């Protein structure tokens, strides 16, 4: 097969036992299509070839008729000007059958997605949800609208189309084994792909649309864990025998690594997956329904209020499962990932209570940090946990993080323990039972399936350890960014410096006026020494404290910027230097690992993990202290600004008392009078000291303002804790 006229052959999209799919591009119009061809039938007998032709024509019919749903690959009818190209395709097709022309999907298929090294332990939860949502919609449409049973569901038959905005649509294809399936019909042909067809297909040969529900469950398990659930390395007979023994709550069967004659019936997912804990729990319940060996229970109907009818329970339950929203959190000091289902009725107090329960952090010590670019810049009194949930941030796949201009953060919220005596927990590796068994020197095996499973467990442990340390560093980086942002945006340093300068200016001018008044021997008439001493003491104390506050802010800002440099350097190091050897392991060992190589890798991992944990803690811990200093300094600044406001009022009142004296003292003096200079200083003080609040004085008369100021000074002095910072 070669290019024809304006149609360029771009390559092969995939192939199976008897066919292949090719990719074509029209150089004039830009249209892209996929064409499905029978490749070789020489190994088939005459009856099998007849059956193949029947199925081929049936698939051609289905693809041309199903055009209404975006989650099903549609057939394409080319225009008249492309008639010669279609004739060329059909002429070169064996068996004198028409080539099937389909819409082109540019993202490969789900099998290829699962085969990527980073997905060896299953896909990210976001991808699992998206695929199941699209696949369920396609199946519901086939079953209810088209009365079609697909009968060959598997990851290979789910293709991916990436939209221009980067989002993906998953589409069901390959209707070669599809067959009309009205409710009353029981199908009786042995079809499907091993590991994906339901037990009744083999056991009785009689089945209905519930076989697609079983295949959906198998695919779902594989998406979540990277493997099919029922001893795939065993013979078909052993698989069927054990399937017929399994109870309704069993979702997987594994072989005992220490006893080849013993099979374990698993009721829970393995720990090696990338699903959030609360969603995995509900997902497991759904798997028990989809993977029930009794097709009657598997296919039972449930009331559907939306459509005022009945739908299969497997679909309605899955729909509810896909509506669950899970808020992801990383408690940095605890080295612990937290995951909670959030609803519209949940409050921040509810969330904080859960965090305290799971981390043992005191309620008053919980400190929230939102990742950069979070839609909510700050957490306010009206904020709810549901507001913190960002759906697109659920997609933490390596592909998305690499292809997105602004990669999603690893979690939606970071939590810190804001206390002097902060406790740092150990970053615990995800060690599976199989790793513990195989790391004992007396244990020996050369079974390929076991060594491959061991490699997958080792891969998960390496990946998660690196992720945890990256989250730890990212958390501190976000904390440093938050502190820097607050200092710069709120102009704390400029504000306190401005308050120092303007108050100093007004104070010095008042002092100059007082000196002039004393020389004229008129001051005592207006202002007594106690008034002046009160002002001097308050000014000197507040000015010294404010200078200290400014220095603290400058120190925190400088320190956080150093933390930003350090954490960025360490994060880049994980990517560039492959510290845990993850990239090398994915390249060389995912297919299986010898016990000798495995035990050597475990020793290296223990050393590397310990060293890396010490490094990231040493480099990041100062950020905790800087944040505490920042929190205290903000509180001290509020107190200082109140005192500056108080000083402003004292200067203002003394200014009024000295008005006549200052005016007379300035008579005959060349240049601006002391009164005029003081008025200018007071104007600057009033404008610059906007953070202060003199509302307490607004209703007071001149006669009692000094008494009120004295009481406030005494009260505020007890709150000053600058020296203890």
Automatic annotation (TrEMBL):
GO cellular component terms, semicolon-separated: IkappaB kinase complex
Enzyme kind, highest EC tier: transferase
Reactions this protein catalyses: L-seryl-[I-kappa-B protein] + ATP = O-phospho-L-seryl-[I-kappa-B protein] + ADP + H(+)
SMART domains noted in UniProt: S_TKc
This protein's record includes keyword Electron transport: no
Domain Protein kinase: 7-310
Key words, A-Z: ATP-binding, Cytoplasm, Kinase, Nucleotide-binding, Serine/threonine-protein kinase, Transferase
A GO BP entry: positive regulation of transcription by RNA polymerase II
SUPFAM superfamilies listed in its UniProt record: Protein kinase-like (PK-like)
Entry protein name: IkappaB kinase
Protein's organism: Drosophila pseudoobscura pseudoobscura (Fruit fly)
Phylogenetic placement of the source organism: Eukaryota, Metazoa, Ecdysozoa, Arthropoda, Hexapoda
């Amino acid at each position: 097969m070669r290019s024809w006229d304006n149609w360029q052959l771009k390559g092969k999209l995939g192939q199976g036992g008897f066919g292949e799919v090719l990719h074509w591009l029209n150089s004039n119009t830009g249209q892209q299509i996929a064409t499905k061809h029978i490749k070789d039938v020489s190994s088939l007998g005459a009856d099998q070839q007849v059956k193949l032709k029947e199925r081929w024509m049936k698939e051609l019919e289905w693809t041309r008729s199903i055009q209404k749903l975006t989650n099903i690959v549609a057939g394409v009818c080319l225009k008249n000007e492309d008639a010669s190209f279609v004739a060329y395709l059909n002429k070169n097709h064996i068996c004198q059958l028409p080539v099937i022309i389909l819409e082109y999907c540019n993202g490969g298929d789900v099998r290829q997605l699962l085969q990527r090294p980073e997905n060896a332990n299953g896909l990210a939860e976001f991808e699992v949800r998206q695929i199941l949502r699209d696949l369920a919609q396609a199946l519901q449409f086939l079953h209810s609208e088209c009365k079609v049973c697909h009968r060959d569901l598997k990851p290979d038959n789910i293709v991916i189309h990436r939209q221009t905005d980067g989002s993906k649509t998953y589409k069901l294809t390959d209707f070669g084994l599809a067959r009309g399936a009205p409710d009353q019909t029981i199908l009786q042909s042995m079809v499907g792909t091993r590991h994906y067809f339901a037990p009744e297909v083999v056991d009785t040969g009689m089945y209905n649309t519930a076989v697609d529900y079983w295949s959906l469950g198998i695919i779902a398990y594989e998406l979540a864990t990277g493997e099919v659930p029922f001893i795939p390395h065993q013979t078909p007979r052993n698989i069927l025998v054990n399937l017929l023994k399994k109870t309704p709550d069993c979702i997987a069967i594994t072989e005992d690594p220490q006893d080849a004659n013993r099979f374990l019936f698993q009721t829970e997912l393995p720990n090696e997956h990338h699903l959030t804990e609360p969603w995995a729990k509900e997902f497991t319940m759904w798997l028990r329904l989809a993977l029930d060996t009794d097709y009657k229970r598997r296919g039972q109907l449930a009331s559907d209020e939306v459509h005022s009818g009945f739908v299969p329970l497997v679909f309605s339950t899955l729909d509810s499962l896909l509506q669950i929203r899970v808020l992801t959190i990383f408690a940095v000091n605890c080295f612990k990932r937290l995951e909670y289902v959030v609803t519209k009725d949940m409050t921040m107090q509810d969330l904080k209570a859960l965090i305290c329960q799971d981390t043992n952090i005191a309620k008053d010590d919980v400190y929230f940090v939102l990742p950069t670019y979070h839609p909510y810049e700050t957490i306010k009194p009206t904020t709810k946990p549901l507001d913190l949930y960002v759906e697109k941030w659920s997609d933490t796949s390596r592909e998305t993080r690499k292809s997105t201009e602004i990669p999603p953060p690893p979690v939606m919220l970071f939590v810190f323990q804001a206390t002097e005596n902060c406790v740092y927990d150990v970053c615990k590796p995800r060690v599976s039972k199989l790793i513990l068994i195989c790391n004992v020197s007396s244990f020996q095996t050369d079974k390929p399936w076991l060594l491959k499973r061991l490699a997958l467990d080792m891969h998960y442990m390496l990946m998660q350890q690196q992720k945890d340390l990256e989250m730890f560093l990212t958390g501190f980086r976000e904390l440093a960014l938050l502190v820097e942002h607050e200092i710069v945006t709120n102009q704390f340093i400029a504000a306190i410096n401005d308050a120092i300068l303007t108050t100093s200016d007004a104070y010095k001018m008042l002092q100059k006026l007082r000196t002039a008044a004393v020389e004229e021997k008129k001051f005592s008439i207006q202002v007594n020494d106690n008034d002046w001493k009160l002002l001097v003491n308050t000014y000197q104390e507040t000015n010294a404290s404010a200078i200290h506050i400014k220095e603290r802010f400058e120190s925190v800002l400088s320190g956080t910027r150093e933390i930003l440099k350090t954490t960025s350097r360490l994060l880049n190091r994980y990517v560039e230097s492959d510290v845990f050897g993850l990239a090398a392991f994915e390249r060389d060992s995912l297919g299986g690992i010898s016990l000798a190589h495995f035990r050597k890798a475990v020793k290296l991992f223990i050393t590397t993990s310990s060293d890396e944990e010490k490094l990231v803690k040493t480099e990041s811990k100062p950020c905790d202290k800087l944040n505490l200093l920042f929190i205290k300094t903000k509180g001290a600044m509020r107190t200082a600004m109140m005192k500056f406001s108080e000083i402003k009022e004292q200067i203002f009142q003394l200014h009024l008392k000295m008005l006549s004296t200052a005016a007379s003292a300035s008579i005959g003096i060349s240049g601006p009078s002391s009164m005029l200079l003081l008025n200018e200083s007071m104007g600057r003080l009033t404008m610059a000291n906007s953070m202060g609040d003199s509302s307490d004085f607004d209703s007071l008369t001149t006669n009692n303002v000094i008494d009120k100021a004295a009481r406030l000074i005494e009260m505020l002095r007890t709150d000053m804790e600058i020296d203890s910072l």
